[in-house]
Structures are given as structure tokens and as C-alpha cells.
Amino acid sequence: MAKFLDTTGISYHLHQIINNANDKLILVSPYLKINDRIKTDLEDKDKFKINIRLVYGKVELQPAE
Q1: Which distant-in-sequence residues (6+ apart) come within 8 Å of 27 by Cβ?
Q2: Which residues are CB-neighbours of 2 under 8 A, at least 6 positions away?
Q3: Structural contact between residues 23 and 50, judged by C-beta atoms closer than 8 angstroms
Q4: Which one of 2, 7, 54, 63 is separated from 31 by 20 to 30 angstroms, measured CA to CA?
Q5: 21: alpha, beta or left, given left = phi > 0 and alpha = psi -120 to 50?
């Protein structure tokens, strides 16, 4: 059965996916808009030299991000 998630559910599961990555992490999304919590999670994984790839179509980020 399909499971539909709201914004909170998506953030929770994305947080779990990022934190459980041990070797590499590939995230694919049609849009890219990163909240502070996810950004911190990705920065933490980068410190451990985890191979991170982001594949996206449209960007909703500010130039500094």
C-alpha cells in the first residue's frame, strides 16, 4: 500500500536516510530546496568523507547556499 507523507514526514525520513549513510549518499529530487536541518546533516556527513551526490532539476536556493 502506498504511503503519503506530509512535509514533516518527508523531512523525518530524509533525515534518517542521511544519518544512516555510511559509504555514499545519492539524493534525487525534481526540486532542490534545503532547510537548515538537512543542510546541517549533509555538512556532518561531509566531515566523515561520505561521498554525497545531489541530483536535481530546479533550484530554489540562494547563491550563497
Answers
A1: 14, 17, 52, 53, 54, 55
A2: none
A3: yes
A4: 2
A5: beta
pLDDT per residue as tens digits for the range 24-33: 999 998 887 7
Q: Quick one: cell of 50?
A: 561520505
* Entry pTM: 0.74
pLDDT at 61 over 80: no
Closest Cα to residue 25, out of 10, 45, 47?
45
Instruction: Enter the DSSP assignment of 22.
Output: S
Written as one letter, the residue type at 53 is R
Average pLDDT over residues 7-19: 90
34 or 39, which is more confident:
39
Cα–Cα distance for residue pair 16/45, rounded to 1 Å: 12
